[in-house]
Design a protein that fits this description.
mainly alpha; 148 residues
Length: 148
């Protein structure tokens, strides 16, 4: 009898913990929209082009270090800021409509001029962070820091 009660209590705890964890791990409509937006894939392309332009000015730095730079760019802060912009400019119902409307297309365009402007306003700060990362990695590997 004790074993049955123990198993029952354990099962209830496991179900409760997994239900609580699933609540915290749900992707919000704004994050779903971001993940499907053109900017979510283009930011990586633009950043790699930006890094390549820096690389052209430092031909003595090996490719492996530039690959380290590319692999160490953290897009999380940028993503979170875009999600805030989406939440500030679109209703949850509007985001759900966008997800439905663009369900057959690979990427969702930036929906409004205002959102596009706010995302554009994030870029100088983001690229400042990229410059900091480049400088840090170059310095850690014995190269002079790029200052432009």
């Amino acid at each position: 009898m004790k074993n049955i009660i123990s198993i029952l209590l354990f099962s209830i705890c496991v179900v409760n913990v997994s239900a609580r964890n699933s609540r915290y791990s749900q992707v919000t409509p704004a994050e779903q929209v971001y993940n499907r937006m053109v900017i979510s894939s283009r930011i990586v392309e633009f950043t790699e082009a930006y890094i390549n332009s820096k690389k052209a000015n430092k031909p003595n730095v090996p490719n492996s270090i530039w690959e380290t730079v590319k692999n160490n760019i953290d897009y999380t802060n940028f993503k979170n800021k875009v999600i805030v912009i989406l939440n500030n400019n679109l209703s949850e119902a509007g985001m759900q409509r966008m997800l439905s409307e663009f369900s057959q297309t690979p990427l969702i365009p930036i929906p409004t001029i205002n959102i596009k402007k706010e995302i554009s306003d994030l870029m100088p700060v983001f690229y400042g962070d990229v410059d900091t990362k480049i400088s840090q990695i170059l310095s850690n590997n014995g190269y002079k820091i790029i200052v432009e």
